[in-house]
Write the structure tokens for this entry.
Amino acid sequence: MSIRIRCLSVHTTTFTKNFDTAIVALVDIEVIKLRSKLKNSLRRWFDENGYLEVSTPLLSPSLIPESSISIFSTIYSSYLHGERELYLVPSPELHMKRIIHKTHQSIYQISKCFRNDEQSGSHHNPEFTMLEYYTVGADEIDSIEITQRLFDQTKLPNTPDHLLPPFKKMSMAEVCYLVGGFDLEKVQNIRDLKEVAKNKGLTLPEKPESWDDTFNRLFLNFVEPFLPQDKPLVIYDYPRQIECLAKDKPNSFYKKRWELYAGGVELANCYDEEDDYTKIADFFRKQATLIALKEGLPIADVDYEMLDIFDGTFPQCSGVALGFDRLLMLQGRFTRVGDLILFNLSDTLKRI
Amino acid sequence: MIKAGQIEKGTALLIKGQPYICVEREFVNPGKGSAFVRVRLKSPSTGQVLRETFKTQDNVEDIRVEDRDCQYLYNDGEFFHFMLTETYDQIDIPLASFEEYQYIMKEGETYRCTFWESELLDIQVPTKVVFEVAEAEEAIKGDTVTGATKNVVTETGLTVRVPIFIKQGERILVNTETKEYIERVNK
């Protein structure tokens, strides 16, 4: 405890000293107005379209295990509970799904999410705002139409036309072939995929690498930077090897998942939400193993209590997670997400 | 060796035996994927630009560099001519290697330069530089629209968009990365 108090006092002193300079540079009234305008317009749209706004915890004792995400953890100390490790949520998904299970109601939330190890850049900040909406009774194809209407009816004035509907739609296999010049269906095993990566001049690490990591090398080097930008682009049918909580597309290599790119920026991710207990439990176990390997720690027990909502009564639904700060950056014609996040971490750390 | 996640602007790397300097870096994190870093690397000897996307955990070969002071003499349209202030040795760099600095560097000014052995890899041009306005259009009388701008040319030949009140002979602070006007500097 004494250590924590000492740290706090050191930081307080430094902060006070530089606070005046920091606040002048980081607060921009136009940005505050813009954020508020878009947030209000989104809220109005969801309210008018039958969605209920929810507020779920930012601090949680358990999270969905996801090996691709680094988390922030902290210690909750109280006489009653002793010391408990708590985490800042990287997404509101877990709690929102509990609400859906209980209410069978379409819901939305505009809330803060936290991802450790995300280096601040043009499109990232470790603390960011996510718009997450779940439509009960819908699948991922319905979500494309819903998202187009949302974009059309909530846009900020002067939003450039290339960021507005109608969205272009291309499957992942199509973009790999037409933009990246490789046939996704022919690289379903890691050996063939590595061969393509090497032929394209990529240097692969000597240690074994998962299919999705090598695929992302190819996608990020040869596909993503060259995606068409004349209209927002929905890339659908993501490979099954990129594990996630979307349903499998029957008789195919794919998941019922899409991502939306606008102006070359990855803006939203959508699933037909998986509701099969066994498949979700498998996903949790596999991710827990991958996290243990990554961190060099023993494999954590799966929190089966989190899974009790997948008891056969979880309704058909589709969820979309959309980066609010990125949407604002694009519609407001900014180039850096950091310019729209008040007191964004990289600018704050530079000053303090 | 360093991790690719540690690469920042100005980091010197050896790629396939050739030295490169990082001129741009962007963190990318594909949905449900590992963290990557996308970099733009420049070969100082040829000006050739390489775009690479590494996993942040990938090992990349960094090279030991040292800083030396160099005085910028002039450019002859083909080469920049520098002089090492310690030894008075002259160094010629193809214009194409540092085209972006052509209208920013001032003749006679000393710059901190990054060297790998005897090869100049980077010129550390400050991000904010004061220039003198060498040519400026006269403001049109009665043009009082807020935010109105015009072009001026600095003593180094750089064209900058500035507010209409800036006059020839005045000094302005410019962001050398974006080439944008920041403010007027009082004498």
Remarks:
- The two ends of chain B are 48 Å apart (CA to CA).
- The longest strand of chain B covers residues 18-28.
- Chain B has a mean pLDDT of 88.
- Chain B has three domains: 2-60, 66-124, 128-185.
